[in-house]
Design goal:
The protein has 404 residues and is α/β, with parallel strands linked by helices. The chain has helices at residues 4-17, 21-32, 35-44, 72-84, 98-109, 169-176, 178-185, 217-232, 247-258, 280-289, 316-325, 390-399, and strands at residues 128-136, 139-147, 156-162, 188-192, 235-245, 265-269, 302-307, 333-340, 346-353, 359-366, 373-374, 383-384. The strands form two sheets. The chain has a ten-stranded mixed beta sheet, with helices on both faces. A two-stranded parallel ribbon has the order 11-12. Helix 10 (280-289) links the parallel strand 6 and strand 7 (302-307).
């Protein structure tokens, strides 16, 4: 049964989408106000602030660092302050718009890095970790490009690594260990950087319709970076792959759907399906409860990693990503396996193999793992060194697929 509150929140979402933020804010305030509590509070304390929302809450500091620990001393201080009732002033903190409020909620659902500092990436003699910039009609982005010291003859595979929220290309390179594997497999590794000017938490904007399709927004910018690399460096145009974590994983899925002619395969770690959200409210809903995404007509081979203890992005999203990759395929053999990593994490693997024995979709579900890159290096953020090596398994999966 649909309640008045649910109908009201649905209407508030419609107003938000229409850009009528003042109306949406007023509606949400009316839905969450408790008239009886207001009257009781006013009778008990006529000087009470009308804007205070009664109830149990957790304080989030202005710097986004999370709850302030409560101690007996701080609790007693709060009681004393309440009893003293200092003189009220007319100065109030400016009210945030609904858009700012919802964006803030979305950011708090994303992992917080606590302010990453610039990090130095060690590279072997003969290798390069270039700092480059792409500029095109849809915008510009800085990116790092790793070129291995041990370069094979001929063009090399290109793997595009899309970092998660609050991360940087350097941090992601250290955490995933992809540069080390590039030396072993002879690959180019690109790390596009999402700046705070594009998203306050440096998340790829996977939930915005303007960043979910070919030829526009962030997908066009990332495709432009690939074009620059293939033009200026020895990259192989039939062996281009994308992988990402969290928001970057969702962006990698989008790249595979938007540019199936460019990518031979993609990897999605702790991400979400294409079309899983269309705005901030639906993004929060997808992250919390999962989303099936939208049907896709063009798909590329996809490998998915997801921790089953992930409380930031619901693991059912990984199931949806695999389902999207299988929509156009009905001739596959399903192989199930389980195992344990060297670090002690147990996992379950479901493979979908074609007639030649190549896996066109893989789903790695890791017991006890949270929102972190499986098998990653402890020097980077959001890594789980105990898990199976997602970087190595992704490269194995990628390199069996070549665009024809």
């Amino acid at each position: 049964m649909t309640t008045p509150f649910a109908r009201g929140m649905a209407r508030a979402t419609e107003l938000t989408k229409a850009g009528k933020l003042d109306e949406a804010t007023a509606l949400i305030q009316s839905l969450t106000r408790n008239p009886l509590a207001d009257r009781q509070r006013a009778a008990a304390d006529p000087s009470a602030d009308e804007d205070v929302i009664d109830g149990t809450f957790t304080r989030i500091d202005e710097d986004g660092q999370g709850p302030t620990p409560q101690t007996e001393e701080s609790t007693q201080s709060a009681r004393t302050a309440k009893t003293a009732k200092p003189a009220r002033t007319a100065t109030r903190r400016p009210r945030k718009s609904l858009r700012e409020t919802l964006s803030g909620l979305a950011a708090r659902r994303m992992p917080m890095g606590g302010g990453l500092q610039p990090v130095q990436v060690d590279i072997p003699d003969g290798a390069q970790f270039l700092s480059l910039t792409h500029a095109g009609p849809q915008g510009s982005r800085d990116y790092r490009l790793y070129t291995p010291a041990s370069q094979p003859d001929g063009p090399m595979p290109l793997i595009v690594m899309l970092h998660g929220c609050t991360q940087s290309p350097e941090d992601f390179a250290i955490g995933t260990g992809m540069n080390t594997l590039a030396e072993e497999f002879g690959c180019l590794i690109a790390y596009p950087a999402q700046p705070q000017t594009a998203n306050a938490q440096k998340c790829w904007n996977w939930y915005q319709p303007g960043d979910q399709a070919r030829g526009r927004g962030e997908p066009a910018v990332i495709a432009g970076i690939i074009g620059d690399i293939l033009r200026d460096h020895p990259g192989d145009p039939v062996r281009v792959y994308a992988a990402g974590l969290s928001a970057g994983g969702a962006a990698a899925a989008i790249m595979g759907a938007a540019y199936p002619d460019l990518f031979a395969a993609v990897g999605v770690h702790s991400g979400l399906p294409v079309g899983g959200a269309q705005d901030v409210p639906s993004a929060l809903a997808a992250m919390s409860g999962g989303s099936p995404g939208k049907p896709q007509t063009d798909v590329v081979p996809t490998i998915v990693f997801h921790g089953l203890a992930d409380t930031t992005v619901n693991p059912t999203n990984g199931v949806a990503v695999v389902a999207q990759a299988l929509q156009a395929r009905g001739d596959l053999k399903v192989i199930k396996a389980s195992g344990s990593s060297e670090g002690g994490r147990t996992y379950r693997l479901i493979r979908h193999d074609d007639a030649d024995g190549q896996s066109v979709a893989e789903h790695w579900q890791i017991d006890g793992a949270g929102h972190a890159w499986s098998g990653g290096q402890s020097g980077g953020s959001y890594t789980d060194p105990q898990g199976p090596d997602a970087s190595r398994e992704m490269l194995r999966f990628f390199l069996q697929h070549i665009k024809t």
